[in-house]
Amino acid sequence: MTSSDAVYTMGYEEFVGFQERLTQSASASFLIPRLKPGQHLLDVGCGAGFLSLRLAGAVTPGELHGVDIEPSQVDAARALAADRGCSNAAFQVADALDLPFADGSFDVVHMGGLLLHVPDTAQALAEAKRVLKPGGMVACRDLLAESSFAYPELGVMRRSWEVFADLIAADGGHPLIARELKAHLQQAGFADINVSFGMETHQAPEEVEFFYQMIRKWFLDGGPATAAMDYGALSSDLKSMIERDLEAWRQEPSAVAGVAFGHAVAVRR
Question: Which end of the chain is less congested by CB atoms within 10 angstroms, N or C?
C-alpha cells in the first residue's frame, strides 16, 4: 500500500472482509460529486478495489488505474473488477513514491487512507503532482483517530485508539496527518486547497455489530495487535482489558461509535 521501505503492520487479509462495507459509507462522498465522465483517474493505495470500482463508475467512459504496493491486494482488485464486469479499471503493483506513469497522465489522483501510513509525505505528494495534468485534482482522505470515539467509553476502550496511533507512528506513519493535510498540500505547491472533516456514525444494532467485529477481528485478533505487542505499544494485559470493555460496549443499548476523517482536494498549478 505504501512505500516498499516501510513496514506495514495494519493487516491486509484481515481487513479485506471489511473494505466493501466501509466503501458503502461516505468514504468518497467528498470526491465523487467532483468527478466527470471521461476523466482518467489514479487510485493510489487501492487495496482490494472496492472503492476503486465506485470511482471507475463515476468517470466512465474514462479510465481508472489502481496501484498498491501489496500484490495480494492488486490480485483481489483485479478479481473484483472481473467479477463485476468493470472494463474501465486496471490494477498493478506500484510504489506510491515511484509511480510508473508519465508526467501529466491523469485528471485526478485519489489517495484514500494512504498518507497516514507513508513515511515520506512530501515524496508521495510530489509523485501525485507529477502524474497530474496541469489543472488536475488530487484528493486525500485519512483517519482522524484522536477525534474518533465509542460511547459509552467503558474502562480502557479509549486506549485502543491510542495504541492504533502509536502503531502508525512506530511504522513511520503520521497519526495526526488528517488535520495537517492543508499544510502538506501547500508545501507541495498545490492550489485551491479545500479541507473538510466528517464523521462516520455507527448507531443501529447492525452498525454497532459491524464496528465491534471490525475492531475485534481486524485489530485485536489480527496482525495489528501482534505488531503492537512486538513494538511494546500493547501488552497482553491491556489487550485483555480492551477486549473485555469492547464486549461490554457491544451489549450496551446506548452504544454508538463515531469514526472521524479529514478530507482535502487541491489543484495542480
Answer: C
Question: What is the rounded CA–CA span in Å between residue 34 and residue 137?
Answer: 9
What are the grid coordinates assigned to 83, written together?
Answer: 467479477
Per-residue pLDDT at 221 exceeds 70: yes
Half-sphere exposure of residue 25, counting CA atoms within 13 Å on the CB side?
A: 18
Alpha helices in 142-180 (DSSP H): 158-170
Q: What is the pTM of this model?
A: 0.91
Enumerate the H helices of 63-204 as residue ranges: 71-83, 121-131, 158-170, 181-187
Q: Residue 56 and residue 65: Cα distance in Å, rounded? A: 9
Q: Tell the residue number behind the cell numbers 505488531, with chain if given.
A: 227
Residues 114-144: pLDDT tens digits?
Answer: 999 999 999 999 999 999 999 999 999 999 9
Name the CATH superfamily, with its identifier, for domain 13-268.
Vaccinia Virus protein VP39 (3.40.50.150)
C-alpha cell at 143: 483517519
Question: Domain boundaries in the chain?
Answer: 13-268
Contacts of residue 112, defined as CB under 8 A and 6 or more positions apart, other chains included, come to 27, 28, 43, 45, 51, 139, 140, 141
User: Residue 133: what pLDDT?
Assistant: 98
Q: What is the mean pLDDT of the chain?
A: 90
- Position 262, amino acid: G
Please give the Cα distance from 133 to 197 (Å, whole number): 27
Q: Is the peptide bond before 152 cis (omega within 30 degrees of 0)?
A: yes
Grid coordinates of 187: 508545501
Using an 8 Å Cβ cutoff, are 63 and 72 in contact? no
- The mean per-residue pLDDT over the stretch 206-228 comes to 89
Task: Give the C-alpha separation, 125 to 49, whole Å.
Answer: 21
